[in-house]
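Module 6 notes. Inverse folding takes a fixed backbone as the condition and produces residue identities as the prediction. Think of it as a translation problem where the source language is geometry and the target language is the twenty amino acids. Below is one complete input and output pair. Work through it position by position during the lab.
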């Protein structure tokens, strides 16, 4: 990814849902102007969710999600339905595609109830309206379209633009924490798990955010941090470190310089910093026999000293001094509500590969299961005894922490 690309996690996710043969894939192709999805008259042609990043006016950068029919049958069909419904966890805007001649069935009614329950804005697109003798007028939450003739496609795209969540435009990664010409030092360790010849996504995004704020970005490895700070004529406004180096970096950076981590800033950016901070308190209450879930949003190749499967369990065991059991998930896998109840704590990665909707969905599921959840950066800061310092850029949250 270049510094100018929009990461998939930052794009609006638009999901197309409906019955088999309602024309979901045809409508996806019509809306995007591309042959993204395989089309056939045979029911169940789409067997797995298909995700495609692209630019879609008037919205901008999006991820289009085409899903299997919600009415699929049989053992294999049930698995397809489950995968389709799983896409709801990351869907920002939903398009319910229905056959204009058939109208709405109970399956579609259930989908609308799910959209409402999950607070997913949606529009109903009655497809194949070219087969009707007369086309009814559009309503506030529905319209008639034809993927075959192109009728109503522009109106549908405008409707999608009007449903764009306003929060997508409000939060800043770092722009509200620094002023023009402030110095921001980014500490990026290069170890065996670092990709060759490039920075990882959170580091790239942070550099771009610093540049957008007209501040000065200085990127160093943890091994060169002390020399870099000594060489800088002006005191940095902020030091942002990879969570793994929190302990070492906190000893090098003077107390009068703000210090935090990439994953803490991303938790704030996705609106989940406060609940993740509250969840870190569970680290002090773990008991022998407790089970901890380590969950990552990406599916990188595991290294011999992997942070998720090796380092984090070791740090937690050393901190809690208890006999604990660990399970691991990655990518789109995350336990169901019932499965979550067996855990005392969930420790999540920085979630740079997940969109805001999916992070919130996981946090909400943990809350319903009565399970504490935190993330790597906050957990590591807690275990190093520097959580309050790592939250120093956020005085309001720090005050709430002091009042607990």
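Target side of the pair, the amino acids:
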């Amino acid at each position: 990814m270049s510094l100018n690309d929009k990461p998939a996690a930052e794009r609006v996710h638009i999901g197309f849902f409906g019955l088999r043969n309602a024309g979901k894939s045809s409508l996806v192709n019509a809306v995007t102007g591309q042959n993204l999805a395989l089309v056939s008259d045979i029911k169940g042609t789409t067997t797995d969710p298909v995700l495609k990043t692209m630019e879609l006016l008037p919205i901008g950068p999006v991820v289009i999600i085409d899903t299997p029919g919600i009415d699929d049958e049989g053992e294999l069909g049930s698995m397809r339905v489950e995968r389709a419904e799983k896409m709801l966890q990351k869907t920002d805007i939903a398009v319910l595609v229905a056959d204009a001649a058939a109208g709405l069935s109970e399956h579609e009614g259930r989908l609308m109830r799910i959209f409402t329950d999950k607070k997913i804005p949606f529009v109903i697109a009655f497809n194949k309206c070219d087969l009707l003798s007369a086309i009814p007028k559009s309503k506030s939450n529905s319209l008639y379209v034809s993927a075959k003739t192109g009728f109503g496609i522009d109106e549908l795209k405008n409707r999608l633009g009007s449903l764009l969540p306003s929060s997508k435009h409000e939060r800043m990664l770092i722009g509200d924490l620094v002023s023009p010409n402030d110095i921001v030092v980014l500490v990026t360790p290069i170890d065996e798990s670092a990709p060759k010849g490039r920075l990882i996504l959170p580091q790239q995004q942070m550099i771009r955010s610093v540049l957008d704020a007209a501040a000065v970005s200085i990127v160093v490895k943890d091994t060169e941090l002390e020399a870099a700070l000594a060489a800088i004529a002006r005191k940095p406004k902020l030091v942002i470190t990879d969570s793994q180096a929190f302990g070492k970096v906190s000893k090098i950076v003077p107390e009068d310089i703000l210090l935090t981590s990439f994953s803490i800033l991303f938790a704030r950016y996705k609106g989940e910093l406060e609940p993740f901070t509250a969840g870190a308190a569970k680290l002090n209450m773990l008991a022998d026999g407790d089970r901890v879930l380590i969950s990552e949003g990406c599916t990188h190749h595991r290294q011999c000293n992997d942070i998720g499967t090796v380092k984090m369990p070791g740090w937690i065991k050393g901190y809690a001094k208890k006999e604990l059991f660990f399970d691991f998930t990655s990518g789109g896998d995350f336990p169901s509500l019932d499965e979550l109840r067996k855990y005392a704590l969930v420790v999540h990665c920085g979630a740079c590969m997940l969109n805001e909707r999916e992070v919130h969905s996981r946090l909400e599921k943990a809350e319903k299961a009565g399970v504490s959840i935190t993330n790597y950066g906050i957990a590591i800061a807690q275990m190093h005894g520097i959580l309050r310092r790592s939250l120093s850029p956020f005085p309001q949250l720090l005050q709430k922490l002091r009042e607990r």
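Reference fact for the lab report: The longest strand covers residues 12-18.
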